[in-house]
Design brief:
With 119 residues, this protein is α+β, with helices and mostly antiparallel strands. It has one domain (18-118). It has helices at residues 50-64, 106-118, and strands at residues 19-24, 36-41. Strands 1-2 form a two-stranded antiparallel ribbon.
């Protein structure tokens, strides 16, 4: 198996780094509407890059599995979605089971993690 190529940084300054960020106001441990900020940077090693992992996940979801693209146009008439409006893709989970709008079941999630932790 051929080794994966590593990314070489374009520059050494932090000013040119791109960040993938997300805001969450109703996560599992935040039921009171506090806005939490989550972010990640690219990793120089391809196999450890969280941005590349998400890109590959979405490529597989929409091109390999041929799932329909969700709508990206905002709808401002729905309450509780703030200044950015509601978008149908907000309902999709990153890790899903049979349907992207339903969370992966614990029964299908746990054995995969348990195997990686004990192997």
């Amino acid at each position: 198996m051929a080794p994966l190529p590593s990314l070489q940084p374009v520059c050494s300054c932090l000013d040119c780094q791109q960040v993938l960020s997300a805001l969450a106001d109703n996560a599992k441990t935040n039921q009171h509407g506090r806005v939490d900020e989550h972010g990640t940077l690219r990793h120089r090693l391809v196999e450890l890059c969280p941005v590349g992992a998400l890109a590959l996940l979405f490529y597989t979801q929409f091109h390999v599995l041929s799932r329909p693209l969700p709508g990206f146009a905002p709808t401002f008439g729905q309450p509780n979605y703030g200044e950015f409006g509601y978008r149908p893709w907000y309902e999709n989970f990153v890790f899903w089971g049979e349907d992207p709008t339903k969370q992966m079941a614990y029964d299908s999630e746990f054995p995969n993690y348990a195997c990686h932790l004990t192997c």
